[in-house]
C-alpha cells in the first residue's frame, strides 16, 4: 500500500464554480505510482466547497452559480450569522449542501474520471481569498 499526501494552495478566484482538475493533478505527480487506488481532495474551508461535474461547457458552471444564488439568497433578515457580510452565511449553507471533499478512483496511475468530468472549486464568497486543499492518494 502506498499513501501520498500533498497540501495545495489555490489562488484567489471570483465567486463562482472553477475547474481545478489540472492543478490537483500537477500537485500530485505520485498518482502515477498507484495502479489501483483512491484520491481524496478535501477543502479546508467552510465557505467554499468541492464537487465533480461537467468539464467541457462553461455555461454549466454559470448555471450552477445562478441556481445556488437563487436557492440560498443573500441578505435574508433571518440569518443570525452576518458579521462578515451578506455573502457569509449563504456561503456556509452552500458549502454544506455541496460538501468539503471529493473522491476519485485511480486506475493505471491516473484519475479515473468519466469523459466529461472535472473537479470544481465552488467559491461562495465574493472575496474568499486563497483556498487550501489537502490531496491524499492511496493504493497499490
From TrEMBL:
Organism: Arcticibacter svalbardensis MN12-7
Matching InterPro entries: UPF0047_YjbQ-like, YjbQ-like_sf
Family under the similarity heading: Belongs to the UPF0047 family.
NCBIfam families the record matches: TIGR00149_YjbQ
SUPFAM superfamilies assigned: YjbQ-like
Annotated protein name in UniProt: YjbQ family protein
Amino acid at each position: 500500500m502506498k499513501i501520498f499526501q500533498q497540501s495545495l494552495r489555490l489562488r484567489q478566484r471570483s465567486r463562482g464554480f472553477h475547474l481545478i482538475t489540472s492543478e490537483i493533478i500537477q500537485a500530485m505527480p505520485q498518482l502515477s505510482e498507484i495502479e489501483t487506488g483512491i484520491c481524496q481532495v478535501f477543502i479546508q474551508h467552510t465557505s467554499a466547497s468541492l464537487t465533480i461535474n461537467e468539464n467541457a461547457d462553461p455555461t454549466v458552471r454559470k448555471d450552477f452559480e445562478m441556481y445556488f444564488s437563487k436557492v440560498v439568497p443573500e441578505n435574508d433578515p433571518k440569518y443570525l450569522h452576518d458579521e462578515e457580510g451578506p455573502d457569509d452565511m449563504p456561503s456556509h449553507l452552500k458549502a454544506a449542501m455541496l460538501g468539503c471533499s471529493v473522491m476519485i478512483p485511480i486506475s493505471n496511475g491516473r484519475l479515473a474520471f468519466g469523459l466529461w468530468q472535472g473537479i470544481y472549486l465552488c467559491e461562495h464568497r465574493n472575496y474568499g481569498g486563497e483556498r487550501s486543499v489537502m490531496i491524499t492518494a492511496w493504493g497499490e
